[in-house]
């Protein structure tokens, strides 16, 4: 019993991280129909910047904010300069984002070196909550909490605000949205930055949770992919659902069958592809 | 078809150079050229998908890895010889591409790109975590080169010509393939899939078959790589590797079959030579990615082809 | 037996064909017989229901009431697919060819669509002389034989339209529906296209919709005039051309 509760809790905290990563990617995919290979790099850069801020100032929240903002700006620049004119040219977009990802990865290697680093968690987030016989590490609770809060903010923004409606219109039919006076290029740039921001934010949290090292960006990408594929590309709620499913299966898989754990990750993706290729909450492709 | 003449000339030059130069080059260069030939097989296979059928399958490195690991495991663990290991490599690549192709072809367009990449990533993860079988991060070492007819394959030049034979056979098979009726249907699918459906073609089946064929050749390349390198590691299926093969096809010129040869040469030389001069060779590579995507998506041969077209028009 | 005695088969018969969309009647009780081998033009002002009638005959749309027969067979409930198998071919207003292949290869792909040869992976396509032979014959019919080695993307719009008809012929149709073949063609190109259609073998029955009156009257043995979905009048080209009422619906009341 204890095993299941602990594992479920661990899975939830892992899901929070995956949501931050996959949610950003699915938003970007939804608005631009591109697969951003540099998405892991947003996470990586965010994590490293967060690391530096904490080392210099000791302030974890400052690190979160600065990293998120810097990465958002990075995304903005990237979209504006490199991706703007390649709408619909899938392969070329993937080549460009790959180039940028490699560049960022090497840059991080240059600045922060090749050794794995760790972000120390602020004092008030260390330790655990005790609930009967169970210990719930405070930081993991924080992770789950922030992911839920962010999801709610984004959901309200998407569904209830005017700007959110503009985003939804641009995603559904960018030509018509443009015809209605919506500044689609601006919306696109904004959503892209938002996606980057989420990843950057996730990078700081992830750095505190499990450390950071060069190459992590490419290692995490498949997880983001599977979250997006399972949840439905472009769907925020789907990303939450997908993150949950992927995290749970991976977590239990690692605990129960460590050797083929990655393979058990593959199972939900395979099932979704076989039954509903556009993802659990995705629109039908026709 | 005089447009195609420059392709044949290029191919002729490349083959002639490959046959004549090696005895005059230092061993390091001979090894690089050997590696180039191996990657060319995989890149040409990918060109069948990207350039001829317009299926941007990004996960071909995954099938290369399947081939490499199959050969490695069969050789080191089960005592297969070179021939047995190679046959195993190709067969396992065929099986995995047949199974995974069923999933991948559920998607189209950019979804297909993403899913094929995810498939390669999953293969990577499988290799990485199935430690008892694959050695995980440590990889598998001790893959010894064969000794056909008593010729020592550890001599780089001997091995080069050995691999060259495989390259020529693959090249000929693929040339025949693209000129065959089936090959032409692939171009038809690229040009107008809707029309092909109306004409009575089972487009899905055609795509599925070429996916498997590309997987088979990638597996062949992987097996050869295992024997070339003597060592295999999970990085064979990682994202950077997948995209590198895509870049080889793109920078050389997709849809030409000759382009990938040039592309493989460029990328391998870049990775090996530039790294001698600077530690930041990855940044150079990233620049190549960006510039190719922005300014030369049809690659070098595509650029030459356009030049020749405008010359004729003028 | 003289040719007049031999009773001609009816290739296409429309019996009271009607199509309604909600409150709108696009085609209204049209009765038409098209003899085998005939060239039947369907003309009428815009919105007269010509394309709708075509789509009902080809099976793209289902009738609201009435029957359609092809060679005496009731196809009213049959899908377009199966009508194609019965020998019905049609061209489209928007050309849809294979630009990076040669004209001959385009035709060969059309011919090969229902053959096993399409799965052959090793012998070059060029070895299959029979396919190229068949392609050549069709290209002769549409006057494109000299361009057979040209890449389709290098040809003009008019030539594309000719190849489009060739592609329809490649499926060996017994009845050919031509939907505005002159659309977008210059005077000279229209002339060539008309000559080509006139020269098609009489083993093929042709129905043609056209706005280009000159072309339509040159090609047709019989003309049907549609007006507001209904059959306004029919007859030989000269009769229709000199009919004052027909002129009126085009230029007058409409």
How would you summarize this macromolecular structure in one to three sentences?
By secondary structure, chain A is mostly helical. Chain A has helices at residues 2-32, 39-57, 60-83, 90-112, 138-160, 162-172, 174-179, 184-210, 216-231, 236-256, 261-275; strands spanning 128-131, 134-137.
Percentage of β-strand residues of chain B: under 5%
How are strands sequenced across the largest beta sheet of chain B?
A: 1-2
Number of strands of chain B: 2
Domains of chain A (count): 1
Based on the structure, what is the oligomeric state of the protein chains? Answer: heterotrimer
Query: Based on helices, strands and strand pairing, what is the structural class of chain B?
Result: mainly alpha
Quote the CATH topology of chain A: ABC transporter involved in vitamin B12 uptake, BtuC
Cα-atom radius of gyration of chain A: 19 Å
Overall helicity of chain A: over 70%
- Rounded mean pLDDT score of chain A: 86
Strand content of chain A: under 5%
Sheet with the most strands, sense and barrel status of chain B:
2 strands, antiparallel
**How many beta-strand elements of chain A?**
2
Question: Termini of chain B, distance in Å?
Answer: 18 Å
Write the CATH fold name of chain B: ABC transporter involved in vitamin B12 uptake, BtuC
- Measured as a percent range, the helix fraction of chain B is over 70%
Give the SSE map.
The complex is a heterotrimer of chains A (286), B (314) and C (254).
Chain A lengths: L1 H31 L6 H19 L2 H24 L6 H23 L15 E4 L2 E4 H23 L1 H11 L1 H6 L4 H27 L5 H16 L4 H21 L4 H15 L11
Antiparallel strand pairs in A: 1-2
Chain B lengths: L4 H16 L6 H26 L7 H17 L5 H23 L4 H21 L1 H4 L5 E2 L14 H24 L1 H11 L1 H6 L4 H27 L1 E2 L6 H14 L6 H19 L3 H15 L3 H15 L1
Antiparallel strand pairs in B: 1-2
Helix pairs in contact in B: 2-7, 2-10, 2-11, 2-12, 3-4, 3-5, 3-10, 4-10, 7-8, 8-10, 11-12, 11-14, 12-13
Chain C lengths: L9 E12 L2 E12 L3 E5 L6 H9 L6 E6 L2 E2 L5 H6 L2 E3 L12 H10 L16 H13 L15 H14 L4 E5 L7 H12 L6 E5 L3 H7 L2 E6 L2 E6 L1 H5 L2 H8 L3
Parallel strand pairs in C: 3-8, 3-9, 6-7, 7-8
Antiparallel strand pairs in C: 1-2, 1-4, 4-5, 9-10
Helix pairs in contact in C: 3-4, 3-5, 4-5, 5-6, 6-7
